[in-house]
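Lecture 7, part 2: worked example. A protein chain together with adenosine-5'-triphosphate.
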Amino acid sequence: MTPALRLRGLTKRFGDTLAVDALDLDVPQGSFLGLVGQNGAGKTTTLSMAVGLLRPDGGSATIFGEDVWSAPGRAKALVGVLPDGLALPERLTGREVLTYLGLLRGLDRDVVARRAAELLSLLELDRADRTLVIEYSTGMRKKIGLATALLHAPRLLVLDEPFEAVDPVSAATIKTILRGFVAGGGSIVLSSHVMALVEQLCDHVAVIDEGRVAAAGTLDEVRGERSLEDTFVELVGGRDGGVRELSWLSR
Ligand SMILES: Nc1ncnc2c1ncn2[C@@H]1O[C@H](COP(=O)(O)OP(=O)(O)OP(=O)(O)O)[C@@H](O)[C@H]1O
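Predicted complex, written out as structure tokens:
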């Protein structure tokens, strides 16, 4: 079966930094994949190239077989994206943002109005109906970003740190939405630093280290008998000597 997302030889260099190094990754259809890695490992750069937001120096990205760079219209219709540092029209309310983006996506006005109302209510943004996006908190921005990613009912969701700065009640709602999305046949790839969250939500995991995939597979294949955190620290921590302490802090 064609993967929901296929990355082959994806490469990006910023000056002397090789951020992503000939990276290969498949996100199988119907899977919920967690992308984990240390700060600066290359997760955001990889996801940005995967969805057509950042042009790779080499390699390819396909979404359900559609090439992100040679067939961007077809590929982008299939994917909903929550990018890092999402730029939003700041002088609109959440409802106006969803209406604007829904109409740009070619959805009917009635459909947009219905879906926007449901998303705003579910994500508890309807109480701030007159608030402009510029006045939103960090967590509210994440939530409206997630709503924009879901609005056109994509087949694949690509979410960069969707739970960052989100309160526990909203996080529980988002988890329910994402689980429902996968149960309904959707596929998800999300990046996170929270191993417990990845273990709780995802059925597949990929560990990125220095721009390459250090391990990938089902959750059980990658972690074996250990916790994901132990596996992760062992895989990527070993290089710089693992966990160290500040001796001058001890009394
Ligand atoms: N626009 C840029 N210009 C220069 N260097 C960049 C740029 N974006 C990323 N990098 C570098 O590329 C590498 C990978 O960064 P990236 O943001 O993809 O990592 P990450 O795994 O998402 O990190 P984090 O977990 O901290 O968000 C880092 O060394 C970073 O400094």
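DSSP finds nine helices and ten strands in the chain. The CA atoms of residues 138 and 165 lie 6 Å apart. Keep this in mind for problem set question 3.
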